[in-house]
Specification:
The structure holds two protein chains of two kinds. In chain A, 85% of the residues lie in helices and 0% in strands. Chain A is mostly helical. Chain A has one domain. In chain A, helix 2 (18-38) packs antiparallel against helix 3 (43-67). The relative contact order of chain A is 0.14. By secondary structure, chain B is of the alpha/beta class. Chain B has two domains: 1-80 and 151-205, P-loop containing nucleotide triphosphate hydrolases (Rossmann fold); 89-149. Helix content of chain B is 30%, strand content 26%. Chain B has helices at residues 45-53, 75-78, 96-103, 109-118, 134-147, 164-179, and strands at 6-16, 19-30, 34-38, 60-65, 68-69, 81-84, 152-156, 183-187, 199-202. The termini of chain B are far apart. Classes of the chains: A mainly alpha, B alpha/beta. The A-B interface holds A 1-2, 4-6, 8-9, 12-13, 16-17, 72-73, 75-86, 216, 219-220 and B 16, 50, 53-57, 74-75, 78-79, 81, 83, 85-94, 98, 101-105. The complex binds adenosine-5'-diphosphate and magnesium ion.
């Protein structure tokens, strides 16, 4: 096994499991359509709430897609093979994560212009929403991976993952929606974007190593 | 050179789920040897193989390979290691060839097909693994033995689900590996052919 062959097989795995990605996106779509129906479909209400709605839906969709990141590999013995292969585990985790990120976030970003119209988000704000997703979503994936790694050996770990990592999602959601509200109010939002980027970088530094340790601990 | 290819384990203590599986376990395996780990169900045979492969950590004890201490970092061993666990990491959605390409990126399709022919699943090369029987899926993992040039084989119950012909073919492969100076550590509940000259290592206390 080499890093390259691992990368190829992960791409293949994402391709074969495309239903999971589609489910995460469908989930996102359902939240975004149901929310206006359930609360208030008027533009007056939706325009200021749009950023928050998109971000909550995106966080849940991301949570859904990272929660089972290692499940299949754990169950079919691939994770053992990976550990025994001598490849550096944090790097392989990062490879897995980048592929997963691309699979979920790229289609999401392509759909964002459509969603923002459904939520009456003005065109001049859409690019801010896209920036916050680009800068903030890596943190959500990276933090989610630690949760997924910690609970990989548990049969029903999904709820536990949620409880462990949700507190760490809050700052990302707060700063992302803060940036969008600032942009809507015509204020400067670069500070919030910088903080989002910083949170993602910090998670990038910590998450692969911590996930690797958690996975090794879960094998016992 | 061959004489340095020794795997030694000293005073190993393995504990799992608060149960002591082995204590003060020491043994050595040399190039060309086949060691058969025996013990009842739950004795810790699989756990021992995982500890050697680096999947689990021992609580106490040391491991050495080729003269180097590998207790903390298995790199030296893993560079020479082919570990087939109970489940050998066969991805059910992948085809047979795709499953092997992950482990042997440098192997040509001809080489992979030859390996598949040896384990008699050549016909299923492009079939998704989930469409194969348990024994055929086992053979996907075992096909790696025909492709690898690694010297240390750790095989956890490689014979389960194999038919008698498959068992013979695998035994021949193990013998050939030993003759070429490789070492094998395996667990199985079946009696190994005496021509393999396997040394037994018992985990029952
Ligand atoms: N995933 C696990 N988590 C906790 N304990 C385990 C796990 N797998 C095995 N064990 C414990 O370790 C012991 C040894 O298991 P194992 O090495 O698989 O035995 P063997 O392969 O000899 O049948 C068993 O008694 C079992 O209780
Ligand atoms: Mg076993």
């Amino acid at each position: 096994m080499t890093y390259l062959s691992f990368l190829k097989s992960e791409l293949l795995a994402v391709f074969y499991r495309k239903q999971d990605t589609i489910n995460a996106l469908a989930f996102f779509l359902i939240v975004i359509t149901l929310f206006p129906l359930g609360v208030n479909p008027s533009a007056d209400f939706l325009e200021p709430a749009a950023g928050g709605i998109v971000w909550c839906a995106a966080s849940l969709a991301i949570l859904l897609s990272v929660e089972s990141l290692f499940k299949e590999d754990f169950n079919d013995g691939s994770l053992e093979q990976l550990i025994a292969s001598g490849l550096y585990l944090p790097i392989t985790i990062l490879i897995k994560l980048v592929i997963q990120w691309c699979a979920v976030i790229v289609p999401l970003l392509l759909l964002i212009p459509l969603f923002s119209q459904m939520l009456f988000l003005p065109w001049s704000i859409v690019h801010v929403l896209i920036f916050t997703l680009l800068l903030g979503s890596p943190a959500l994936f990276l933090v989610g991976t630690i949760g997924a790694a910690l609970t990989v050996s548990l049969k029903r770990g999904a709820v536990l993952v949620l409880l462990i990592i949700l507190p760490f999602y809050l700052p990302v959601i707060i700063f992302a929606t803060g940036a969008i509200s600032a942009a809507q109010a015509g204020q400067d939002y670069s500070g919030q974007l910088a903080i989002l980027g910083a949170i993602s970088l910090l998670s990038l530094a910590l998450s692969p190593g911590m996930s690797a340790v958690s996975i090794k601990a879960s094998m016992n | 050179m061959q004489s340095t290819l020794t795997l030694s384990v000293s005073n190993l203590l393995i504990e799992r789920a608060e149960r002591l599986l082995c204590k003060d376990l020491s043994f050595e395996i040399h190039a060309g040897e086949i060691v058969h780990i025996v013990g009842e169900n739950g004795a810790g045979k699989s756990s021992l193989l995982k500890v050697i492969a680096g999947v689990l950590s021992p609580l106490e004890g040391e491991l050495f390979f080729a003269g180097e201490r590998i207790t903390a970092h298995r790199d030296v061993l893993q560079a020479q290691l082919c570990y087939l666990g109970h489940l050998a990491g066969v991805k059910s959605s992948f085809t047979v060839i795709e499953n092997l390409a992950l482990h042997f990126p440098a192997a040509t399709e001809v080489q992979i097909l030859a390996a598949l022919r040896s384990v008699n699943i050549e016909k299923y090369a492009t079939t998704p693994a989930y469409q194969l029987s348990a024994g055929q899926q086992k053979r996907i993992g075992l096909a790696r033995l025909w492709l690898t040039n690694k010297k240390v084989w750790l095989l956890d119950e490689p014979f389960t689900a194999l038919d008698t012909k498959g068992v013979t073919v695998l035994e021949e492969k193990l013998q050939q590996h030993a003759e070429l100076g490789g070492m094998t550590l395996l667990t199985t509940h079946q009696k190994l052919n005496s021509t393999l000259h396997a040394r037994e290592l018992s985990l029952d206390s």
